[in-house]
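Before going further, learn to read the protein records used in this course. Taken together, the tokens spell out the fold as the letters spell out the chain. A record is reproduced here so that you can trace the correspondence yourselves:

***
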Amino acid sequence: MSLSQFPRSLALSFGLAIAGFALPALAQETAPAAADAPTADGLNMGADANAAPAPLTQETAEVGQTYTLTNFEAWEQRCVKTKDGSDPCQLYQLLKDKDGNNVAELSMFPLPAGGQAAAGATIIAPLETLLTANLLIAIDGAKPKIYPFTFCAQLGCVARVGFTADEVAQFQKGNIATMTIVPAGAPDQKVNLDISLKGFTAGMDAVAATQPK
């Protein structure tokens, strides 16, 4: 099932989120197109209203804004600009259905050694996801694991989950993980979303380097 088969109100609300938010602080922000319009003799020459706004970079982001530092194949390293330059980052991927529709978002981050979870993740699913069905994640066709949703906000339903060191190792060795959610309007159907693991290891290493020591 594609996002278009979810209720119209859901498609609209989630459409507002696909610019990329995994946590409120990590919302992907963009610079207005007109801000960089060329000028002549002090006159602003305007910009194409249909042009996509330029994503923020480390240089253009202001303190508190989120920018994409670099890409690791299927993943983006997204960071929050700080005053002292110690910008914390997470590894982000936008998940699409088989028809190419934007459906969910995943952000992952390493956790300090010694805890039960070696990495954490924030997953955003559409608002009218069937919460009682939870969500499933399976790596390379292995037996899936069940994770509950934590809360719902205006832009989607959030699951805050943890992964053991063994599970992180499976991500590093794997090719594709599959996340499964169920739409509330069609509880007899499942939406399977591929999570590409290309670039995962290098991306997590880069993100780990930004974590507080």
Observations:
- Residues 1-27 have pLDDT under 50 and may be disordered.
- The CA atoms of residues 34 and 47 lie 5 Å apart.
